[in-house]
Amino acid sequence: MTLSLLAHAENAGGAVPGAIGLVWLLVALPLAGFLINGALSLWSPRAKSAVSVVGAAVLIGSFVLSVLIFLQLRQAPPEAPYIVRLWTWLPVDALQVQFAFQVDQLSSVMLLVITGVGSLIHLFSVGYMRSDEGYARYFAYLNLFVVFMLVLVLGSSMPLMFIGWEGVGLCSYLLIGFWFTEKANADAGKKAFIVNRIGDFGFLVAMFMIWNAAGSLDFPAVVHWAETNPALAGGGLVTAITLFLFLGCTGKSAQIPLYVWLPDAMAGPTPVSALIHAATMVTAGVYLVVRLSVLFAMAPFTSAVVAGVGALTALFAATIGLRQYDIKKVLAYSTVSQLGYMFLGVGTGAYASGIFHLVTHAFFKALLFLGAGSVIHAMHHAYHATHSHADAQDMRNMGGLRAAMPWTFAFMLIATLAISGIPPFSGFFSKDEILAGAFARGAENPIFYVYYGMGVLAALLTAFYMARLMTMTFLGTSRTGEAERPHLHEAPWIMTGPLLVLALLSLAGGLINLPPLWGGGAGLEHWLDPVTAPAAGYFRIEAPHGQTEYFLVGAAVAIGLIGLIWGYLATSRRRTVPAQDSAADTGFWRVLAHKYYVDEIYDAVIVRPLVWLSRVLLWRVVDQGIVDGMAVNGSAKISRGLGWIGSRLQTGQVGIYVVFFLVGALWILRVVSG
Amino acid sequence: MSAILASIGYSHWALHVLIVLPLVGIIPILVGPVAAARRVALFVTVVEFIVSMGLWWGFAPTAGMQFVSSTPWIPRLGVSYSVGIDGISLFMVLLSTALMPLAVLSSFTYITKHERAYYAFLLAQLVGMVGCFIATDLFVFYVFFEVLLIPMYFLIGIWGGANRLYAAIKFFIYTIFGSLLMLVAILAMVWRIGAQTGTLSFSYEHLLTNAAQVGPLAPWLFAAFALAFAIKVPIFPFHTWLPDAHVEAPTAGSVLLAGVLLKIGTYGFLRFAVPFFPQVAHDPFVSRLIVVLAVIGIIYGALVALVQPDFKKLVAYSSVSHLGFVMLGIWGGTVQSVQGSLMVMISHGLSTGALFFLIGMLYERRHTREIAAYGGIARVIPVFGIILTVVALSSIGLPGLNGFVGEFLVLLGSFGNHPVATIIATTGVIFAAAYLLWAIQRVLFNRLDKPENERLTDLNPRELIVLLPLVAGIVWLGLFPGPVLRRMEPAARHFVEITQPVPGSTGAASVAEVRP
Fold first, then answer.
1. Is the Cβ–Cβ distance between A261 and A192 less than 8 Å?
2. CB B412 to CB A632 under 8 A?
3. R_g of chain A, CA atoms, integer Å
4. CB B448 within 8 A of CB B454
5. A181 vs B411: CB contact, 8 Å cut-off?
6. pLDDT at residue number A280
7. Which A positions 300-359 lie with beta carbon below 8 A of chain B?
8. Residues of A in Cβ contact (< 8 Å) with B393
9. Minimal CA–CA distance to B89: which of B130, B138, B58, B46?
10. Cβ proximity of A534 and A527 under 8 Å
11. Cα(A114)–Cα(A280) distance, rounded to whole angstroms?
12. For residue range B163-174, what is the model confidence (pLDDT) as tens digits?
């Protein structure tokens, strides 16, 4: 049954036509880039031009191929995914995991985002990392990341996706700790890996459960199993599977309670933050939920949890973002918050909306991070020129940068309007859809009204902290210092070029899924229909109509505008002083500035007790004290004592002992064999 | 390839050559000049490896023993020199022959005293390892099992660290205690079955077929076998000889100890203890006990590894953790879990072997294994840093590298029969990441703050020749484990079938009911 389905899904065997058949090349190109740049980093680290060409060209090549694949899919949208088999990876009895790539509507969208935004960020990196001594190593890691990210979205089975899933975590680890001689950076990388591993534990257990129940880990087979067993809906098995899967998502996609690694991940180079920690890797959890949307749809409890955690994370992270001074930290919490929106979307069952927001967020958040990178680049050079050790990322040291960096300012302003949900920028449409979906679900389960309210409140705070960020960075008077000011200048074209493209996408990205209200055809939603169709039967989202719809849209726009204006006024009216002259926050602001002390709590409640348990109880007491000290060496002492008695009785010759042993052995034999 | 092998009659002589060659090789080492000892040893072990490679192509993926041969040895006692391999022992033999040339090569500068004796002991060790895995007569197995002990005792006791005598004696007494018990069990079993069937024989086939004849002795015999092998594995709480032995042993000793010797314990369970006495092994109490001890080993080993200040001790405790996965898989009761166990055995041999090599190379440069003595050295010796990172990731079980395949299969296959234990065991992946990443951070990353580390030299060509085959194996087995898995599958399936308790028979709960 399952097998016949797979045969069908493969669209008549191995010969997959056209560009889709070349999908392996999509992965092979960045892999080659990794190998070449890796070799260069060891033997010729100064060959920066070669590194730049290889590093960026492989990505652009992959992007072209992704476009071709997308166009081919568009010409004849398939009902079932194309499976391109490469080899059999894990053949064990009934378990036959293929190393195979799955091309369908969902993965093609992800491919475009990964290789498209990825190409822009690679180009930006050419300028941003130019003067770094680890330039070749940087591009090697970045290329390797793209390899794993593509495997993640293309993997046709859960174990293969898991290669990508953990592989991107590895690259994230390597790139967060890129400047590894600073302990803080190495710490941040390690933290990211380990926290992600907690999530991966969930992913693994979910796989075991699915294998046990469905007898396969191939996505088409799992979906088919779910479709043919509707009686499982609402049951404990599906609920448990999806909860474990969601644990995996909270790790990779930085949701409560495992979000803590993402803000620390800002220790990596800024383009890394844009690519990995905003546009692609951290959205893998959303992708996973949509990929297995039928299971989540069958588990209403899990879906409510997903939506609830998403809404809570969106709000919680936004509040922390209000009080950060490091420009990247603001964006990091913003990313956590926006990922929360995506989970709110997929948790309400609006899977296409989740992907829609994933795409628009990739545009505007990559733009914000690269813009921030451009700012940091300028600040860093200015401080470098004057040998100052002031913090190049602290917004209190900025101000008035608009004059020096007009383009960066303009582009980031577009992204700010997009994330704040101001029409017609892209974020408006995607966020609005998610909130509308949550509102609609409220009719059947009032808890979703609460989620909706949290989402709206988070939207207000989002607009606030973005206005604060823009005001502190670009407006007002400069706090950079007299000596540094002449050294502040706009980034080179290789950096502003990608910003321009991203700005255009942030502006117009909403078109891909323009709702009927605005004269669109909800293109993305229909495009994803074959993927989300199995889930669609379990609940219907009655999209709000007429007056309600207008009201919701009006409210969303008003909230965004209020937040922006409030944020601007609140920030520009306060006198901001450079970081070194600033007094510490007090009261609740202090709690926010310290991120609710969550890191400290985790450290005190989990990390330190665990190390103590291991060091003192397990190692010193159990291992060295009880097992080794008392049992092993104790029995040695006893036998030494017996030996002393024996030596009084015997000559101590080895021969005697052998005789005794044989006699004893024979005696035992006699006894036992009766 | 198999045609070439057939034309030279490979299947008739291969296993004998694998035993005789190292034995013969000892002679020129002992009588030749000291300076030549290491080269002779290298030559012999490389030839041994090349000869053993024929097994890979000559092996037909079926369940039974292959390359079998049997010569009467002590007919009065029913002892014959019988050898053969199946899909379980094939890879243990290959692992032994593959690690040995690397172990020899890594000793070139590490060992500076009594070189002839050292290399002679290494070859003797090889004889014991291969012998254990190919023996299909329990007397022969026992002989090789004891042969294994002596070279390792001297390797630790003579070429070991400061506390080497304590460690060597502890290792020796611990192991001999178990093996003597096993001897008694073997004798009792042979005697008893001989009395029942009228044929006195140490033949594995004979004993396996008639194992049920031991009747009420079965629990005692199983206990004796299990204890002997449990010490070897080692299963918690019989593990404390291992960290001491590892820390004191010279690099090659540690590599062989972790890479091969520990596997003789798990191999013993797979070959003897469980197939002989499946009813006992899958008795709910026994099964629960072993699974619980396996899971304790996984978690406990990882947590204790986390806090070790000595890098070598850290890896030693990590072995306790990894071998716990093997034990869980053996009792997992499915083809996936058993093949997973076999894969963990192979992968652990490669990755832990490589880790010990790397630590040894670091030790040769700085004469300390304290993690705190390093920091930031990836800047100074980048190639070392890359290889250590790849090997550590393999040990962590990063998918795409070899470690994942085994662990994943063990857990996937065991989940059905032991869901709770499997879920707890799965948390081991978190702790594994914690102890190894923390360790490599403190060694490779952070600030380069010790002046002694600023002039470390990166790996030389000889060291790269030692490490690169292991790295290649790590990547190859991670991405293309198919050929290995297919070769071991019939043997694993056979193991699952013969150890699956017959429904309704006495004392045997169906495995599915055994849930911790």
1. yes
2. no
3. 29
4. yes
5. no
6. 94
7. none
8. 170
9. B130
10. no
11. 6
12. 898 899 888 888
pLDDT value of residue A647? 63
Across the interface, whether the CB atoms of A673 and B448 are under 8 A apart is answered no
Nearest CA distance, B212 vs chain A (angstrom): 14
pLDDT tens-digit readout, B468-479: 999 999 999 999
The phi and psi torsions of B178 (rounded to 5 degrees) equal -65, -40
Which residue on chain B is closest to A98 by alpha carbon?
B482
Instruction: Give residue A471's pLDDT.
Output: 95
Residue A554 to residue B378: CA distance in whole angstroms? 56
Which residues in chain A have their CB less than 8 angstroms from residue B376's CB?
A: 180-181
B205, two tokens: 């086939």
Q: Which residues of A touch B426 (CB under 8 A)?
A: 201, 204-205, 208
pLDDT at A670 over 70: no
The secondary structure of A162-222 as a DSSP string is: HHHHHHHHHHHHHHHTSSTTSHHHHHHHHHHHHHHHHHHHHHHHHHHHHHHHHS--BHHHH
d(CA B282, CA A279): 51
B184 and chain A: CB distance < 8 Å anywhere? yes
pLDDT at B59 over 60: yes
pLDDT of residue A14: 53
A563: its two tokens: 């937040």
pLDDT per residue over A34-51, tens digit each?
999 999 999 888 888 999
Q: Choosing among A88, A90, A207, A660, which should be mutated to test the B contact, i.e. which has the most B CBs within 10 A?
A: A90
- Could you read off the pLDDT of A426-461 as tens digits, one per residue? 999 999 999 999 999 998 889 999 999 999 999 999
Please tell me whether residue B203 adopts helix, strand or coil conformation: strand
Model pLDDT for residues B6-48, shown as the tens digit of each residue = 888 888 899 999 999 999 999 999 999 998 999 999 999 999 9
Of B184, B241, B304, the CB nearest to A614: B304
Q: Is A163 on the interface with B (CB under 8 A)?
A: yes
**What pLDDT does residue A60 have?**
96
**DSSP alpha helix (H) spans, B2-58:** 2-7, 10-31, 34-58
Half-sphere exposure of residue A213, counting CA atoms within 13 Å on the CB side? 23
Assess contact for B251 and B363: CB atoms under 8 A: yes
Shortest CA gap B245–chain A (Å): 13
Residue from A362, A332, A338 nearest A149 by CA: A362
* B195 vs A contacts (CB less than 8 Å): 673
What distance in Å separates the CA atoms of residue B136 and residue B84, rounded to the nearest whole number?
6
Decide if pLDDT at A646 tops 70: no
CB B286 within 8 A of CB A598: no
pLDDT surpassing 50 at residue A7? no
Q: Is B438 on the interface with A (CB under 8 A)?
A: yes
Q: What is the DSSP letter of A268?
A: S
Instruction: Find, among A301, A273, A483, A277, the residue nearest to A376 by Cα.
Output: A273
CB within 8 Å of chain A, chain B residues 220-259:
220, 237, 239-241
Predicted local distance difference test score (pLDDT) of residue B502:
47
* Amino acid letter for position A32: A
CB contact under 8 A, A194 and B422: no
The reply to whether B405 touches chain A by the CB within 8 Å rule is yes
The Cα A83–Cα A556 span in angstroms is: 41
Inter-chain contact A614–B306, Cβ cutoff 8 Å? yes
pTM of the model as a whole: 0.92
- The Cα–Cα gap between B123 and B117 comes to 10
